[in-house]
Amino acid sequence: MDTTKPIKAQPVVCPHCDVEVPQVEGPGRRKLYCTPDAGKQWRQRLRALGFPV
Ligand SMILES: [Zn+2]
Asked: Which residue pairs from 38-46 have beta carbons closer than 8 angstroms and sit at least 24 positions apart in sequence?
């Protein structure tokens, strides 16, 4: 991770399907998943593994 660049200028890869997630310019949180559903499934998997997410 390069901390000299804005966080949104750095590529984000969806942990669920390994595809790069395009970021929306401007304020707000980074998009971490390609779709809300991918995020949901990813958290479900983490919960199944015992992570408190
Ligand atoms: Zn995804």
From this structure: 38/14, 41/16, 42/15, 42/16
Neighbouring CB atoms inside 10 A of 51's CB total 9
Q: Whole-prediction pTM value?
A: 0.69
Predicted confidence (pLDDT) per residue in 12-31, tens digit: 999 999 999 998 888 888 88
**Residues around the ion ligand 1 (C-beta < 5 A):** 14, 16-17, 34, 38
Report yes or no: 8 and 21 within 8 Å, Cβ to Cβ.
Answer: no
